[in-house]
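Exercise 7. Given the components listed, write out the predicted structure of the assembled complex. Treat all entries as one system.
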Amino acid sequence: MEQARLEAFSDGVFAVAITLLALDLAVAGPGHDSLATQLGDRWPSYAAYVVSFFTIGITWVNHHTLFKSFAIVDRMLLFLNLTLLMFIVAIPFGTATMAAYLRHGGNDAHLAAAIYAAILEGMAVSFSAIFFWSVRNDRRRHEPLQPDTVRSALVRFGAGMFVYLAAIAIAFVSAPAALVVITVVAVYYVFEHTPTADAQATLK
Amino acid sequence: MEQARLEAFSDGVFAVAITLLALDLAVAGPGHDSLATQLGDRWPSYAAYVVSFFTIGITWVNHHTLFKSFAIVDRMLLFLNLTLLMFIVAIPFGTATMAAYLRHGGNDAHLAAAIYAAILEGMAVSFSAIFFWSVRNDRRRHEPLQPDTVRSALVRFGAGMFVYLAAIAIAFVSAPAALVVITVVAVYYVFEHTPTADAQATLK
Amino acid sequence: MEQARLEAFSDGVFAVAITLLALDLAVAGPGHDSLATQLGDRWPSYAAYVVSFFTIGITWVNHHTLFKSFAIVDRMLLFLNLTLLMFIVAIPFGTATMAAYLRHGGNDAHLAAAIYAAILEGMAVSFSAIFFWSVRNDRRRHEPLQPDTVRSALVRFGAGMFVYLAAIAIAFVSAPAALVVITVVAVYYVFEHTPTADAQATLK
Amino acid sequence: MEQARLEAFSDGVFAVAITLLALDLAVAGPGHDSLATQLGDRWPSYAAYVVSFFTIGITWVNHHTLFKSFAIVDRMLLFLNLTLLMFIVAIPFGTATMAAYLRHGGNDAHLAAAIYAAILEGMAVSFSAIFFWSVRNDRRRHEPLQPDTVRSALVRFGAGMFVYLAAIAIAFVSAPAALVVITVVAVYYVFEHTPTADAQATLK
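Answer.
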């Protein structure tokens, strides 16, 4: 029950955040460049919309998968979950800022792409922290994970955090390259189960 | 349970997207044309609000009807559902853009109406893909559909996809005509059950 | 189950609409009049925020009370509920427009207040239509209502619709007076049970 | 059931309000100061985002804890809950206004910080009122609270209300100091159980 309402609140936050991404689709409207030109100029916004939409969507899926393995909810979990949501909610800001500066070109595109990657890094770190919270104490999960599964999860979560960290660094070399890296991560997670899901499957 | 949370998340996205439509109702306010003039000039926004509201609303109803026939949730369904939601969330953008250019007149109204129709086409295609996912494997549904029902659904989904595709083409001839076609589809779906719902009724 | 998801979707729309009211609280910010002056000038926005917040909130309460008496969900109910939600979602627009013109004074304040009242009238009519849908056929309710209860509900719903209609007329004489009438209705509904709730209590 | 839907609606409002905080993260974009300068100038917005995010998040947690101890839902509770939500929904406005004036400096920063603190005070008072509603009559709770627990809750709720009241006063001396006080309250509540939660634990 407690968990049900925690998930309902989180679902609501994910749903609003993913929908707010669409606010950046807007064009300047009539009286500016032709619509085709405006849409063409704004391609980074449209590319970023798709990438961020799937990134939030996949994180929601993984959030869901992870939380259903939890047996308890404590203050620490609530705090970690709020931290995760704080980064999720910042994604539309990161997306819009990155797209605006990518479109405009110039030096600030590097910083903007780095901020976008940093928000995703914050999300990945919070997500991993929730996973680690759950394996620190066996009574926190319906079924304890095998040490092998935990090790494998560690590797994969570590990889995720490392890739977003790399994207921050890459952003200072090439902003579009950072966006490509972030896109690849999103595509990867669409087709790959999370370690937790695998673990669950193994345990079932 | 898994399905319940998938539906809760989808409901949240539908609810936010349908509510964001209202952001385009706003007038410029005092200090511009008289309020009556502003409201009169903005009629395409108000017409489009009603059409998009019912289009999203009916799609939500059909989403609901379809998903309750599903016995399992897998990665592919999650991916297809995210794709559907990505188009749903883009509807307020498509609606506002179409209304702005329809109001302003000129050549760009054609492209704006075509984009609106294209977003709806994307929604229809994603929706159909979810249906096809469900009939590819009998264990995905609580009760397998009869071949006749599937064939009939194919025809009707095909029709829906065709009409929105036609609306894209019509938009390049006449933007208001495309809006009329889209309105007719919305009205039709308010009063007509989806194939799936019929199928369910038949099976019950 | 079907009803649960209909309520979940409606709850989501109510929740987003009620929250969007807050977008009109914003002041112009530094570099304009002093903050105290801005806040003072914007008093109609703050008064209207409270009134609309309770109006949507109370309608949500009544929606909830009404729907839990329903035994079935059919296409007509879905359509009527969508119509109701379409007016709910338009309330932030009506509220902000009314407040902007009330603040600015001039002739357009009348029309703006009338539009606000008209949106609430549309809400009241849709709500009544849902009630009438439910009493047209006994199998639509868990327990049929007594003719007396239906008659009493008719009177009270009629009164609600009449008062908002009156507010539309009053708006053309005095916009603030229309806001006062709408406020009185909100206060009345906070402290008074809906006919339906009374009916339920009687039947229990 | 009744309570479930009340919580679902409240969760929705909390989720939307917490997400709308992110709208104030936006920078002016290309063509203004360098992105680094813009981000640096806007530090009050980023600090306030984190503080308000955790304040709303913790209030949601406490709301959840409190409501699950309730045995009934009546009109008064619905009214008090709407009042609480009205303040929650105003938090993004208070946050953005405070941050804008803090950034800009000048005399109005005092008033802006006082308004932010006043909204939080309104939230704290409404929350306390809900608690007092629940202890006025034993049948309103699943298990009546011991007089000791109620007294202890009184002290702690009183403390909360007093601190936000103090923050209003402090704001007129130093706006940043008021923000620090509000931050301390948020941090305190992250790590401290609410009296209600303690009470529950004692009773279990």
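Discussion: The first helix of chain D runs from residue 2 to 20. Residues 194-204 of chain D have pLDDT under 50 and may be disordered.
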